[in-house]
Amino acid sequence: MAAVKPIEPPIGVELSSNPDPNAELAFRFLHYLLMMREVEDRIERKLYRQGKILGGVYVGRGQEAIPVASGMVAEPDDVLFPSHRDMALYLIRGVHPRQIFAQYMGRIGGLTRGKDGNMHMGDIKLKIVAIISAMAASVPVAAGAALALKYKGKKDIVFVFFGDGATSRGDWHEGINLAAVQRLPVVLICNNNQYAYSTPLSKQMACENVADRASGYGMPAEIVDGNDVFAIHESVRRAAAHARAGLGPYLVECKTFRMTGHSAHDPANYVPKHLWEEWGRKDPILRLEKQMLDKGWASQGDLDRVRSDIRSEVDEAVEWAEKSPYPEPSELLDNVYEKPQTDGVE
Amino acid sequence: MAAVKPIEPPIGVELSSNPDPNAELAFRFLHYLLMMREVEDRIERKLYRQGKILGGVYVGRGQEAIPVASGMVAEPDDVLFPSHRDMALYLIRGVHPRQIFAQYMGRIGGLTRGKDGNMHMGDIKLKIVAIISAMAASVPVAAGAALALKYKGKKDIVFVFFGDGATSRGDWHEGINLAAVQRLPVVLICNNNQYAYSTPLSKQMACENVADRASGYGMPAEIVDGNDVFAIHESVRRAAAHARAGLGPYLVECKTFRMTGHSAHDPANYVPKHLWEEWGRKDPILRLEKQMLDKGWASQGDLDRVRSDIRSEVDEAVEWAEKSPYPEPSELLDNVYEKPQTDGVE
Amino acid sequence: MEVTYLEAIRQGIWEEMERDPDVFIIGEDIGVYGGAFKVTAGMLDHFGERRVVDTPISESAIAGASIGAALMGLRPVAEMQFADFITCAYDQLVNFAAKCRYRWGAAVPMVVRAPSGGGTHGGPFHSQNPEAWFAHVPGLKVVTPATAYDAKGLIKSAIRDNDPVIFFEHKGLYRRIKGNIPDEEYTVPIGKASVFREGTDISVITYGAMVYVARDAADELAKEGISIEIVDLRTVFPLDEAAVLASVRKTSKAILLHEDILSGGVGGEIAARIAEKAFDHLDGPVVRIAAPDTPVPFSPPLEQAFLPSVPKVIEKARWLYNY
Amino acid sequence: MEVTYLEAIRQGIWEEMERDPDVFIIGEDIGVYGGAFKVTAGMLDHFGERRVVDTPISESAIAGASIGAALMGLRPVAEMQFADFITCAYDQLVNFAAKCRYRWGAAVPMVVRAPSGGGTHGGPFHSQNPEAWFAHVPGLKVVTPATAYDAKGLIKSAIRDNDPVIFFEHKGLYRRIKGNIPDEEYTVPIGKASVFREGTDISVITYGAMVYVARDAADELAKEGISIEIVDLRTVFPLDEAAVLASVRKTSKAILLHEDILSGGVGGEIAARIAEKAFDHLDGPVVRIAAPDTPVPFSPPLEQAFLPSVPKVIEKARWLYNY
Ligand SMILES: Cc1ncc(C[n+]2csc(CCOP(=O)(O)OP(=O)(O)O)c2C)c(N)n1
Ligand SMILES: Cc1ncc(C[n+]2csc(CCOP(=O)(O)OP(=O)(O)O)c2C)c(N)n1
Ligand SMILES: [Mg+2]
Ligand SMILES: [Mg+2]
């Protein structure tokens, strides 16, 4: 299968005449951070409230650095198992915002043609596996994908994403244990945003860090600032190198915070105010922008340009998606099985 | 509910005129060790081969010290969740060998009146919960029992038993995590006999010890020689004290070896010969007997007497069980629900 | 007093917790958040953490812990955040909870509440109707209320029942359906169907949200002089076979209607009972109306085509009437 | 060549592994031990550790890993040590495996082998017939062979199928049933029933171990001049409705027979199809014979009373014949 070329952030790249190699990387990070933020803001704060998007809406506001940094580490033939706050992974793999909006609106322009909604999207050609709702169900499946890559003698690896709450599921334990015993090439990326819906860590686990569980699987783990895109990039690169070297799974725990409700209908009154303020100051985008200005990688004008270009790309994508038709009712019966189904449908 | 008085090992007790308090304890240990060994030998090596026992037969040969020591620590009102190699727990709680043989033969004299077989026996009055076949399914259930004891403000605690292989089940993870988060009074006793059916530890887990998993639940754990009944007794006493003090779950990993096949039909050819020899020398019964002689707690004559008394008790119990009738076919429909069932049984 | 279906369930649980100190609730986000659908709203404040147990994301442990607590004499009321996740607790429910009494005489008085059903654009994992997966498990009882009155009366009976009960609450009814319930306390027996509407020409046997689809179809058909009797099963396992057969013997024509998919659905079991035990009374084929054998699709036009509809019921009823 | 039902399955898997390097097996104790029932005996030596994956005790991970490998283009053949433990993998199978193609067009070509059925004194957890729990899940196929010929032909078709297949092997048939199978390679199509025995008076529609109970009853009944046609479903989901209806239209009387319990069993679905689509051809009630709604008991006299028997079939058939 041909490798998938990520969308280039043109502005960013062209502007980094700066010799520091991190300058260009920073612009790439910024592009995807802002694109994810803009796409999800549009979904959660506009289209959902306008009633143009139905069903559950979960966004990764404040956590964007995790999928952005991880997605930039993954090679095009690596297999991704995003969770429900990892939008950037799709963007980096070249899924167009048009397709994403169409997906959320249940149009045929979406990745599932309306069969499923929101983050439940995948594309086997892009090597992105769609989650099911059950938290952590992807973990054993990711182990199996890794087993297949090893079976075929490939050097590709698997990235599987999950939250702190998902680690309480039996599937999380079984999947990681199997991957560890079989030394499968899996990078485990935990977004520890300290809440699972309304449930704080103290009611989720009795250990301090998700990483404390790694010893039970004989695997290495590291904890990283989940709002520092460069730091995550470093950690995930170490994890990927470990997995690619055939040394088995490797856990990266990203400490972050969910800067919104669990889903679009959740005001999250259960979150103490001070946490919003505290973590608001740690916003990964503001942080990166400041860094870029401080290091002289970009001018305020550059940053504004990136933002405005993204905004117009997203405007266009929403328009496109709204024009994408709904599926025909007849499609209801398509693709239950490989061959058209005759039984149980009249 | 009235506390259940264990069967006294008369000989043992009366003989220990020895001032050392451990002398009497040693006789109690010996009684239950030998009784479990004798009962299970009779089941596996005689009745099963004679075709008098049908279905699966799993015994704890070589691991008897684990249920014996643990069962002696448990207070009569503590709740026990035996696994399939913990026969001594039933004996200590006062289940008569007659009932056990009848259970294995599918007679009404058994604890389940023939509804279920072998180790699948429980008695809520004795506070012993019957396992289901699915490994580790008892762990979340044990957590719930502990939750109930805490809910009622009792000081009683729960003991749940499992093997090394069972720790790979999602239920094991979910149950312990819940117990840890809720700080429930559960003593977790692992018989690490290095095999799960034909599967060695190396294919079961990527960590060296089951105890390595404890940190993931923020709970203490200790590793003990699973063939040293006094050592296990010490460890389990510490664990029970911890749980009874309201400090949450505590894991005791007992390193031992399964001195037989997985079940009566398994020759276990997959086990390297040297392991049989090595562990045969560590037999917990021979070890205790030697200790009792060395310390002058008992004479060879005493020990022989204990053995022969047990043998005749078991002979009598088998006779009794063989006379116990099979259930009437009409009992098939009893006890599906509290009230006699009318639907689906025409 | 008129209350919503949701409020009726909430009141039922609340009253039982007031009445019996051994009743407690356990599940995900049921405490400070009051549950994903707010069925347990206010209970943490009123009853405290001891009796409102927020758990990790561990459906199997929620079910297992409920079993353990029930074995010790408590009466847990567990919540699955969505019925679809009950699959994660399947072994505990069908093998542990269901079989304890039969195997060794141990009672497991527990309730598992599961918000089920579609029509809410929930997609494949927030819309399923899992009742048939449990209406095949001796030892369990499966309850599927359609009205506010029954919802309250049945949740109270479920909590008092000494056997494990799976209680399916239809999400689409939570706030859409209101009903008058008495101020004084009452219960509704598990295992008894009710005649939701009397009729003479055709028996429509159904439950849950489809009761209202049947009702709307019956209103239309009445204008054509076709008299529909609607039997609301209320409990789908064990079945109230007598009620079903009585209605069919009266009307001699039967339609089985459910939102769950056709194959392996509860309707098949009931149609089979009719075809075996009311055969001589039948004046026409036993008709089934159900969702097609597909996952539940997300996009509105697809979901609309998926769900059994009033026109579909009218069409089939006309056909059967003229048979 | 004459082989046992067990050996036929073993050969089928073996041949497919020889034919297609993407086929591999995964499960507990399937390697050095050759599986609890020895179905995979010799495969580790012949195919090596890469293609014979021994796992921890993790049914959900076995199912999940099979899905992941299948998504990557391999063809896993997973073994549940006993069908009863498939409940531990329920979410992965009914929510992940079954729905991938429908949701996002991803093929999941995997097989889950599950030794099921009673009559072996296995008790409540080593005797169940879980097919109905899956014959209600669109996206899955559920296969239940009765003969050595079909067992081999169907396991080969299941492995080549591009959709997930749950393959129930009846433990009671493993060594008891022998059959001649061709030396040259063959397959048996999934989704097609077969007429196990031709007859004219009554159609007995069954599958798995009960095919032989039906056969023995038919032999007896033949002496009384009652001619039984036996339809072996072979696949219970999706159903071969056409074959069922064709037989019933011919005989105009139908008995559904299965070892699984009555309520919610596959027999109900088929009886319903008959009552709806062959109604005018029926000359008598659609009779069902199945185990009662109880767990599977351990003690021989109880299990004997539990399992559908030849005398029971004879009695019901006589009654229906004279109806
Ligand atoms: C098995 C299961 N139970 C419950 C849910 C409902 N649910 C959806 S997301 C969520 C919280 C997940 O928390 P976490 O894993 O920390 O991820 P986060 O949303 O915080 O990123 C819950 C309980 C689910 N999806 N799956
Ligand atoms: C969920 C589940 N899968 C498979 C089995 C079959 N089985 C019975 S015992 C056993 C091995 C258990 O190993 P371990 O937990 O180490 O206990 P041990 O027998 O060694 O004492 C297996 C695989 C089972 N009982 N439950
Ligand atoms: Mg979280
Ligand atoms: Mg073991």
Characterize the biggest β-sheet of chain C: 7 strands, mixed
Bound molecules: thiamine diphosphate, magnesium ion
Percent strand of chain A: 5-15%
Helical content of chain A (DSSP H or I, runs of 4+): 40-55%
Features:
heterotetramer; A: 346 residues; alpha/beta; five-stranded parallel sheet; 11 helices; disordered N terminus; C: 323 residues; seven-stranded mixed sheet; five-stranded mixed sheet; globular; binds thiamine diphosphate; binds magnesium ion
Structure, explained:
The complex is a heterotetramer, with two copies of chain A (346 residues) and two copies of chain C (323 residues). With 346 residues, chain A is α/β, with parallel strands linked by helices. In chain A, 41% of the residues lie in helices and 9% in strands. Chain A contains eleven helices and seven strands. Chain A has helices at residues 10-15, 21-47, 65-73, 87-92, 97-104, 138-151, 170-181, 229-244, 273-280, 284-294, 300-323, and strands at 79-81, 158-163, 186-192, 195-196, 199-200, 221-225, 250-255. In chain A, helix 6 runs parallel beside helix 7. Chain A is globular, with a radius of gyration of 20 Å. The two termini of chain A are 38 Å apart. In chain A, 62% of the residues are buried. By secondary structure, chain C is of the alpha/beta class. Helix content of chain C is 37%, strand content 20%. Chain C has twelve helices and 14 strands. In chain C, the strands form three sheets. Chain C has a seven-stranded mixed beta sheet, with helices on both faces. In chain C, strands 9-11-10-13-14 form a five-stranded mixed beta sheet, sandwiched between helices. In chain C, strands 1-8 form a two-stranded antiparallel ribbon. In chain C, strand 13 (254-261), helix 10 and strand 14 (287-291) form a beta-alpha-beta unit. The longest helix of chain C has 15 residues, at 5-19. Chain C is globular, with a radius of gyration of 19 Å. Classes of the chains: A alpha/beta (346), C alpha/beta (323). Bound molecules: thiamine diphosphate (2 copies) and magnesium ion (2 copies). Residues 163-165, 193, 195-196 of chain B line the site of one magnesium ion.
